[in-house]
Structures are given as C-alpha cells and as structure tokens.
Amino acid sequence: MTSKAFSSTASAPSPEARPVSDTRHGIERTDDYAWMRADNWQEVLRDPALLADDIRAHLEAENAYQAELLADTEALQKTLVAEMRGRIKEDETSVPAKDGPYAYAAGFRTGGEYPRFFRLPSDGGDNAEEDVLLDGDREAEGKSYFRIGGADHSPDHKRLLWGQDDKGSELYTLSVRDLESGKELPDTVTETGGSGEWDAAGSGFFYTRLDENHRPSKIFYHRIGADSAEDRLIYEEADPGFFVDVSGSRNHDWIYISAHDHETSECRILPASDPDATPRLVAARETGLQYDLEEGGDIFFILTNADDAKDFKIVTAPAGDPARANWQDLVPHEPGRLILAIMAFANYLVRLERKDGLPRLVIRDRADGSEHLIAFDEEAYSLGLMGSYEYDTETLRFSYSSMTTPQQVFDYDMRTRKRTLLKTQEVPSGHNPDDYVTRRLMAPAPDGELVPVSLVYRKDIALDGSAPCLLYGYGAYGMAMPAAFNTNCLSLVDRGFVYAIAHIRGGKEKGYAWYEDGKREKKVNTFTDFIAAARHLVAEGYTSHDRIVAEGGSAGGMLMGAIANMAPEAFGGIVAAVPFVDVLNTMLDDTLPLTPPEWPEWGNPIASRADYDTIAAYSPYDNVGAQDYPPILALAGLTDPRVTYWEPAKWVARLRERKSGDNPVLLKTNLDAGHAGASGRFSRLEEKALTYAFVLKVTGKMDNH
C-alpha cells in the first residue's frame, strides 16, 4: 500500500555496498553495510569529532533527506512544540522530602532546560528560603549536550556528589561540591556510571567505573582529599556478562554491591561506617536466582525468586549473617502476584506488586503481620513508590496517575490510613479528565493468550474505524509499560487519535511468566502479540489498519523492525526510535558494551547454533524482504552506547535496497546525543514533535489543529 502523504521527488541516499562476509556454525552471511560501524567507535563515544568522514557524510545525507521529506511539517512541528510546552508547568518543583534538618527537592525555573537541586530547613514553613545546591542550567552553559546523573548529599549534609555527561555517551564525570562555600572540591572522577554512594561519615564515596568497552565492571572507593588515581578497588567483576553497581541503605548502615545480568544477581555488603572492610558475599550467583536486599534494622528483608518463586517472595535474614541458609519466608510466593519492589520502615514493610495486570500497594505491620491495601478505582492506572530519606517514620509517599488523570503525589499515614494529597500535576494550558476515556482491552493472541491494551481517546470521537491510532509497544527485559498520564500524547488525542499501549509478552504486566514467554526462543510472541493488538483494535472499531502508526524505541525498536517484516500491511506507518534492529550481528560481537550481559535475554549465537537460528529467524536487519513496507521513520544517536548508531543506519539502507513500493524510509541521527536523545526538557519536545508530525502526515491529519 503506497502512502499518498509523500510527494517529494528528492532522491534518497544510496550508500555504497562494501560486502563483508562472516561464517558462523557453517553458515555464511554477507553484510553490505558493515562499513558503517566505525572501527574507532569507543573513541567516537568520547569525542564524536573522530567519526570517519565517509560515515559522517552518509549520516548527514540521511538527515538532509529526512528534513526535505518532512519540510512541509515544519510549521506543524512548531505548533506541536508550543502545545506540548504549554502543558508543562515551567517552574515545576518536586515535593520536598525531609531528611533530618533539611528537606530536599528538585525543580525547574521558568524557561529552564535542566533541573536545579535545592533544600529548605525542615521546620522553616512556607516562607523558608531555598538553598540552591546545583543549578543545571548554569552547568550546561555552552554545551550542546548535558545530562545530570546522580545528585546526592552526604549524610552530614555538608557536601554534594553529582555526575554529568556532556556527550550523550553515558560516560559521567563525578564531582564533589562543598555546600557551605558552593565550590567544587578537587575530588573529580571520570568515566563513571553517573552516581555514587557516600560512606556513613560523608568522608568518601563508592562509585562504579566503566571499562574500555563501556561496561560497569569495577567498584572503587574515593576518600575526600585523596588523589583519585589512588582510589581503592573494592570489587571487580571478571565475567563480561555481568554489570556491577553500588547503592546504600537509607540508614547509612550498609553498602550494597550488586553484580547482575538479566536473570541472575549476586550481592555483597559491607558496613558503610567501615569503607576499608572487605565486602561479604550474601548468596553466590546461581543462574536464574535473583535477590535484592532492604535493610530492616537487625534484619534484612530480601525480595527473591528463590525456591521456584517465579513471581517473587519476601524472606528475612539476620543482618549479622544474611547467608542464604538463614533465609526465612515472610511473604510467601503467590503465582500471578508479582512483587515488584519493597521498602522497609521501622514499623512497616511496604510492597509494590502487580496482580491481574494492575499495580497495588500493600502495607504490612511488622509487629503483628497484618496487611492492608491502598485502593484505587480506575480501570487502568500507574503507581510508583517515591522513596524516603527517613526510616523511622509512619509516612509513605507514592504517586498515582492514569491515562486521563494527571500525576498525583500522596503522603499516606500507615497507622491511621489517612491519605493526604500533596500535589497534582498542573497542565497550564488546561486539561479536563472528563473529556477523555481510558479503557483496558484484552486482545486475543494467536496462541489464545489475552494481551492487555490500554487506551485513551476523547469521548467525542466516532468509534467506527475512522479514527487514527498510535500504538506503542516495548516488550523486553521484563519492563512493564505503565498506563500513566502523558501530556505529550494529548497532541494526538485532541486531534482525534486513539492512543494505545500494547502490554505484550516480554514485559511483566501479567507476571514473571509473561516475561519468560517473550524472551529467547519464545521472542516471536512479543511480535505476534503486538500484531494481535493492532488487529483487535481494528476488529473492535477503534481504528483501521491503514490508520495505525506503530511506535517503539530501543528493544521496542526491534519490535518495530520485526512487525514491519512480519505484517507490513497491518500498519500505516512505523516510528522506530534508537531501534535494536541488527540483533544477530550485535549478539555475535562480544566487544560491544551490552552484548555479553544481553545473552540471557536473547541467547548466545556465538556458543549456540540453536540461539543463532532463533535470532536469525527474527532479526529485523536479516529479514528485510522484497515487500511493500509502510512509511518508516527511524531515529538514532551518534554517541549511543546501547543501540549503536550504525544499527538503524544499516537497517534503513537495506530497507531501501530491498523493499518494493514507493513509501519512504527516513533516518534522523542526532549528531550531538546518545540513547536518550536531546537532553533538555524543551529540546526533547522538538524530537517528539518531529515524530508526531510524521505520524500526522502519514495518517492525513496534518491540517487538523
């Protein structure tokens, strides 16, 4: 089906074919576009100017072609940016969180792109003066890209540890600021994961360092005032398939060092008061065993899938010896009830869990074991634990929203069960939830499973198949897509769109088994679930196939590439953001940052012929065919260490080479950013406006303002 939306006579870039052959398991494959992968990609992450001239010229040609074919949307893009910006409260500020003598918060100034971090006296009242600790707009001056990692105050409130990335490559520099003078100390550490964890006295911090292949593999301790070259190595992970990170307990009693891939975890602990201590192993890694620790005074609460607890259970262990032999069940495993997170307080244990596809909060009294739920009424909604600096408190803070209800922040008294609304997300340009409908459908998959689909649309649209639809999906790593409030999508919904989220296998929306049924040899379920969701929306009269635009990013971009190959006729357009589409080549390249840790998710095609065959059968780049594809927009970031820029660049080139029909394939590469795209909160809107302009163009809704 040829789209009538594009009439430009511009010629698409036609990159040179430079065949490179590779043989694995006796199977030879030829890649004409392997040359787009820069040999010096590690150096390019650190300095984008080092990109080879021929590769840069090709990416720039693609950007020019994309700009020409979407030139008629420039005014629309500006309108969309203005609309989306109008829904943002420009001086938005978080609700301050109390920590002893201060309450800490973050927020924006009017017109500002980046957050500022500040504190107030805890007992200062409404007129207390803000003490600005870090001003993101000031730090970003003169930089084409800027992102703040962590920003954490020391336990004694005297210093701030914060991270910054000025290239989009996720190689963060950590700095320490003296909060009395406001000056930076000479305690700078480079090429870190972006945040750190203070010791109990605030005299030093633990941090993760990335290796030459961009993998977080080492934990160091830096003592304030010392030369960072002499930082003590606390832990080094020898297995390239495991990443490490460091965190701490809210009471500043313990430091946690975690090594993990996508299905296995291993934790070590050491006293935060003794940074020179040797980390102590809690439970040795065992393939498939996952566990996380939460301090509870003289015990640890441990969230784990041990003993075949697929949807997780909670156990306890003495803080003095939390070895697995001492684990005792507290909240037993219940199939179909997935425990997502726990938070311990002096007198209560809180868990966030998902049952029947919806999240819920459960409060447990530690003294008598009694439990109660916090209830919500809407058909589909999103919940989040907001964290707490304080342990000895009866107040729980959480967030709530739905696809029609702006985010609300509540304090909840766990003893009296009183819920206090602290803040409701403001939409300055106006928003009336009563104008919209949110629904939860269940789409039948080919194997009989029912796929949840969350919808939002205006009450006044005709549900006769004429409405356009943006259908979003992800479906990987067990990540559930929340049915949360999204001000940006209102620019489509207010133009008559149905906005839908397909909660496909590969996520955990229906429990851990929902994740397992969408990974490795069962990965195809992710793709067929998404196609089933599209077909169900059509069957129920919400839209028609030529008016559905599919959208996904990263692993969701792989989904976009797969459904484009499998069912191109089911979609009127496709948006693939930083798409992981060259799956087989990437999983065969163990020098790339994410490849070894990703093998548990996708399979290891180097070691296994069966895994090779599984991935080869769906890898989008390897399965592009001589068929009519819908219009496609792909987005990439030059310094992206997660999905490298050459994946979408190669995919677009092969699509153009092999497809039939006249529908365009567009590629926009941000030459100043990485995986997350533009860093500023308003500059990000420009990228979303480009995406939405493409969506409106391919569905014939450009003039509907």
Automatic annotation (TrEMBL):
Residues 485-701 form the Peptidase S9 prolyl oligopeptidase catalytic domain. The keyword Hydrolase applies. Residues 1-25 are annotated as: Disordered. Residues 15-424 form the Peptidase S9A N-terminal domain. Belongs to the peptidase S9A family. PANTHER family: PROLYL ENDOPEPTIDASE-LIKE, PROTEASE FAMILY S9A OLIGOPEPTIDASE. This is S9 family peptidase. The lineage of its organism: Bacteria, Pseudomonadati, Pseudomonadota, Alphaproteobacteria, Hyphomicrobiales.
